[in-house]
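Fold it.
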Amino acid sequence: MPHGGCQGLYPEQDVGCGGSRWKQDEVFGRADDLESDCCNAISYHLTNGLLEGNSVVEGNIDCSGTVTAPNFVGDINVQSWKGFDIKHPSKKGHRLRYVCLEGPEAGVYARGRITGTNTINLPDYWRDLVDTETISVHLTPIGTNQNLFVEEIKWGNQIKVRSENGTNIDCYYSVYGARKDGEPLIPEYEGETPADYPGNSEQFSIAGYDYGPGTQRG
């Protein structure tokens, strides 16, 4: 099967057509490809990022290096993790890789410590960024048990903390909330690919999935 004008996925030589390890050819438009190069019934092409083949494969996929899947039969799940990879700040010759916290909402947080005061001051922009009804506060007393509790949340960016036994407050805090500048996330929905998402897809960048021309790619 010729591959002119597209970029092919070919089986690794050491596993052959019966294996599950495939590689992406770096050469576009190989006109001399034989049908045997594609393992006949298991034939795939990448044209403008779209994976086409004879098995049940739908959606867009961004491939580089080795692509691993059980014979490319069945569903494709976008499972990329969002994160960063940087030069290690303290170990020479090492790198540091972190991934982002994930959940069913577009969450934001603030954390810190208050000593000798009962007020947690959040950034001013929390008033317009965060839904105040979603704010949760976690307090960790330092030194002694202070029986801490949240007395009130004012204006969406100021939290009043009280000590039930009247001791001076010294604690760490973590405050979480969900963004309100957009549609709420729909964690579960019916569909076969991310393109079936029932909400506003332009609001989210899904790593590893391309919604098509003119749209964001994760």
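DSSP finds one helix and 13 strands in the chain.
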